[in-house]
Request: fold
Amino acid sequence: MSQSVDKPKIRVDIVHLAVSIKRKKILDDISLSFVSPNIYGIVGPNGTGKSVFLKALLGFIRLASGSVKINDVQIDPRRDFPVSVGAIIEHPGFINDMNGHDNLLALGQIRSDLTDADVHAVMVKVGLPDDKKPVSDYSLGMIQRLGIAQAIMEDQQLIVLDEPTNALDREGIAFLTKLLKELRDQGKLVLIASHDLLWLQTLADQTFELTHGQLHKIEDVMQA
Ligand SMILES: Nc1ncnc2c1ncn2[C@@H]1O[C@H](COP(=O)(O)OP(=O)(O)OP(=O)(O)O)[C@@H](O)[C@H]1O
Reply:
């Protein structure tokens, strides 16, 4: 576990979480806590429920039973999150006719007073040209980078990423790995679902495998 900050500032407490979709049990009695500053990885084959788990944590899916608290506040989709959250769940959605900069600015001004200079800085940070090109002309990897920019541009404290390496090339994955470690070292809590255990083991402080509706700790053989 990372030791850079003594006291956790962000925590997610999951107690007896269960989710069923169309009568099929997807998550079954999961209890665990995630605390900052750490990166947690969730790995598992296609269709095991990684995305459902992340959505349940953020209140996007109705729980069959159990609870999720972020910093001791029960998640409620009708209320603001108790901490700022940056998330990529499924495909990042942007307005196709607008360029990347204007998309981020529009989203950033919903919750905060993000400036052009802030947006420029985050575009540079994620390796995107800050130009007039509309998002409709972006490659999939560029859209993924723009999604990552959106998830970090407001200094979000809890970062939740579903398959963030999708469509990224080798250089993009290396950049993302470095970025996520930096965010962790700044004291943030990062949760990542990925099918790529080898990649998760290069950056996660703790990795879990989701099988049969439950999360099992994978002991990090690289640190053993
Ligand atoms: N809206 C939905 N309607 C019906 N079934 C759903 C829905 N969302 C998820 N499921 C089902 O829940 C299960 C878990 O899906 P989920 O997307 O969480 O898997 P995953 O582990 O993220 O998979 P992948 O690696 O392919 O993204 C799957 O069987 C899926 O078909």
